[in-house]
Design brief:
The structure holds 2 protein chains of 2 kinds.
Chain A: E1 2-7, H1 11-23, E2 26-31, H2 37-40, E3 46-50, H3 58-68, E4 74-78, H4 83-90, E5 95-98, H5 103-116, E6 124-127, E7 130-133, E8 138-141, E9 146-147, H6 152-163, E10 169-170, H7 171-179, H8 189-201, E11 211-214, E12 218-221
Helix pairs in contact in A: 6-7, 6-8
Chain B: H1 7-37, H2 49-62, H3 68-81, E1 86-90, E2 96-100, H4 112-121, E3 130-135, E4 144-149, H5 157-203, H6 221-277, H7 282-312, E5 321-324, H8 325-342, E6 346-350, E7 357-360, H9 362-379, E8 385-391, E9 396-401, H10 417-428, E10 431-438, E11 441-448
Classes of the chains: A alpha/beta, B alpha+beta.
Chain lengths: 223, 452
């Protein structure tokens, strides 16, 4: 069971979100203010935090929670959209969603955040013929049952795709998050790595199905 | 008004003193002069002819019955006393007996006619030399004695003083005038200095753009001006502070307004979402979808409205940086790609390897691009086409669609606040945009201003 700490002062929204998320299989602890949240944060896998709260505002509460439990992702949920607020929120929060949000989007983002911290609902993922076991970091070709061994960079690139499912990633974005340094114009390193990666995981590397090329923009892995 | 508090009165005093001091200075200098010189100089013993004459007569009287030797002796004594004078003695027979100095030109014998001629010639107050003739003896028959003093020796002490006075008076007056000019100059240069200080204070603003207050030393007209200046600075500072407070209040208001509008929208969406899970007819589901899309629309409208308010009042945060345009547009479009993909759009993208940079706020640019993509998603569905291209050669961004054009009818058309925001933002970033729109599509080009 994945436990979510939900801090929201609006009763209507609070009860609706709580109900909806519980429906989706999360265990929700709902607080009406930030008081006492620091003590219980460690028992949860994720925090959903409203900005406008009675007493301490969401930014302050969030920063304290991050200090208390840095590994637990925080999703800010706010009706304030000013760019300043967004930037202030993202200084410590892992994601920022503005009201009126769609419950499906909220759920999707929760999934992404949990997966990023390794707490996805299922530790197993199926991409075409590849079975990914996230807890053991193994990739198994289901046709043969054999494990696919990836090099360090290939693994990092593939994991980056898995952490950003259905998202189109430009080669600059992938390069900079995997290599950790600025992408230089015309650098072909990433393309070469992706070609080798495809040779290992695609059935037919010439017409890739898992790592999709979005012409002119980048790559995408659909889940 | 007190004297020290009024420059006008001070100046009037200087002028008044100047007018008074000219006559007074003549007077003062005279007094000074006379007390200075007349005390030190002996009065000239030749200056008074009457004194000389009475002295000479008295001497002649006192020589009554004197021997020749006694007379000569006395004359010699007198000569030593009146060294300037020529003296001689003629006896009763008309013979010149004795003369001092020895080389004086005196006839040796005096005939009656010669004597009368001599007397005639030497009469009057202007004849030079001044001549005194005195008959010796009580009976006036013992001859006569003559004293002649050159007029030049008879100058009075006053006369010589007057000459000196005439010589000194002009420089003295000049000195007095110079002192007056000097005082005037000091007076005005001090005024000038203070005015310059004031100007300096006005023209050198502190960090907040408002000049510093200046310290006031005097309470005259300039001092009052300085006080007024300080008062003005004070008001300026407090109004600046008020403005800042108002701005904070305004931002707060906008943020709160946004919050207060969005919270009920979220609730509505929540209820709509809950309703959707109930058993509903197709029509009911359609209605709920419509409600959902309208909630989205309202949310964006609120956002746009607030952004527009901030933008027009120049309060929207703007942080320009050198930005890689190809990358920015590519990343921005990547987020929209799935939307267009799901709707079956034909996507024609062109992002070259080479790039160029503009000095812009990337958040603003993303917002602008989002607005264009959003518009195409909403209003250009029919064309099923989107073209996104970055032209490195001409440094421009081109976004095209095959929709019905901006003048065409579309279901979700609003008041165009989104495009107003785009227009404002592009203008602030010194970018130029150009729209070609018709029934078969729209092409938007964004380029640098100077290239247009």
């Amino acid at each position: 069971m994945r436990r979510i700490l939900y801090i929201e002062d609006d009763l209507e929204i609070g009860s609706w979100v709580k109900e909806d998320l519980e429906h989706r299989g999360f265990e929700i602890q709902w607080l009406k203010s930030g008081d006492g949240s620091e003590k219980i944060v460690a028992n949860h896998d994720l925090v959903i935090l409203d900005v406008m709260l009675p007493g301490l505002d969401g930014f302050t509460v969030g920063q304290r929670l991050k200090k208390e439990a840095p590994q637990i992702p925080i999703l800010m949920l706010s009706a304030r959209t000013a760019v300043d607020d967004k930037l202030q929120g993202l200084q410590f929060a892992d994601d920022y969603l503005t009201k009126p949000f769609h419950p499906d989007e909220l759920a999707a983002r929760i999934e992404v955040l949990l997966r990023r911290s390794g707490l996805s609902l299922s530790n197993e993922l199926h991409l075409g013929h590849i079975q990914v076991n996230l807890s053991e970091n193994t990739f198994i070709d289901q046709r043969t049952g054999e494990e696919i061994i990836l090099t360090g960079k290939q693994y990092q690139i593939f994991m980056h795709f898995l952490r950003h499912p259905n998202q189109i990633l430009t080669k600059e974005q992938i390069y900079e998050s995997v290599w950790g340094e600025p992408y230089l114009e015309g650098d072909k390193t990433l393309m070469v790595h992706i070609r080798y990666l495809r040779e290992k995981i695609e059935i037919n590397p010439g017409t890739p199905e898992i790592i999709e090329t979005i012409r002119g923009i980048g790559y995408r892995v659909k889940q | 008004m007190k004297l020290k508090n009024s420059l006008l009165n001070q100046y009037l005093l200087i002028i008044f003193l100047a007018i008074i001091i000219l006559p007074i200075s003549f007077f003062l200098i005279s007094i000074l002069f006379y007390t200075q010189f007349s005390g030190t100089e002996e009065p000239n013993k030749y200056q008074n002819g009457i004194d000389l004459e009475s002295m000479w007569q008295a001497e002649a009287q006192s020589l009554t019955g004197a021997t020749d030797e006694q007379i000569a002796e006395r004359l010699k004594q007198l000569q030593t006393e009146y060294s300037e004078a020529t003296m001689y003695w003629v006896d009763e027979t008309g013979q010149t007996k004795y003369k001092l100095p020895e080389n004086a030109t005196v006839p040796s014998s005096w005939s009656p006619s010669h004597t009368i001629d001599f007397m005639k010639k030497n009469r009057g107050s202007s004849v030079d030399p001044f001549t005194v003739v005195a008959l010796i003896g009580e009976q006036k028959e013992e001859g006569f004695m003559v004293m002649q003093v050159p007029r030049s020796a008879m100058e009075t002490t006053g006369n010589s003083l007057a000459d000196k006075y005439n010589y000194w008076i002009m420089p003295s007056v000049a000195v007095v005038l110079t002192i007056f000019i000097f005082i005037s100059w000091i007076f005005f240069s001090r005024i000038r200095k203070r005015l310059l200080r004031l100007r300096q204070a006005m023209s050198s603003p502190a960090e907040n753009g408002i000049p510093d207050q200046i310290s006031v030393f005097k309470k005259d007209e300039i001092g009052q001006l300085e006080i007024e200046f300080n008062e003005m600075i004070h008001q300026l500072e407090s109004s600046r502070l008020r403005e800042k407070e108002e701005e904070t209040l305004r931002r707060q208001l906008i943020a709160n307004l946004s919050h207060d509008l969005r919270t009920p929208l979220t609730t509505i969406r929540g209820h709509a979402f809950s309703l959707k899970k109930e058993a509903l007819s197709e029509k009911g589901k359609e209605s709920l979808d419509l409600i959902d899309s309208k909630i989205n629309y309202l949310g964006q409208l609120i956002e746009n409205l607030l952004s527009y308010t901030l933008l027009t009042s120049g309060k929207y945060p703007y942080n320009p940086k050198k930005t890689d345009i190809v990358r920015l547009v590519k990343t921005s479009f990547a987020a929209w790609y799935p939307v267009f993909e799901n709707r079956g759009f034909q996507m024609d993208v062109e992002f070259p390897e080479k790039t160029f940079r503009w000095d812009i706020d990337s958040q603003w640019m993303e917002r602008i691009l989002d607005n264009f993509f959003q518009n195409i998603n909403r209003h250009a569905m029919e064309g099923k086409y989107i073209g996104v291209k970055v032209d490195v050669v001409q440094e421009q961004i081109i976004i095209a669609d095959h929709g019905p054009g901006m003048s065409g009818k579309s279901a979700g058309k609003g008041a165009g606040i989104g495009l107003s925001i785009v227009s404002l933002m592009l203008k602030d970033m010194k970018l130029h945009w150009d729209i070609q729109t018709g029934e078969t599509g729209t092409i938007i080009r964004i380029s640098r201003k100077e290239q247009s």
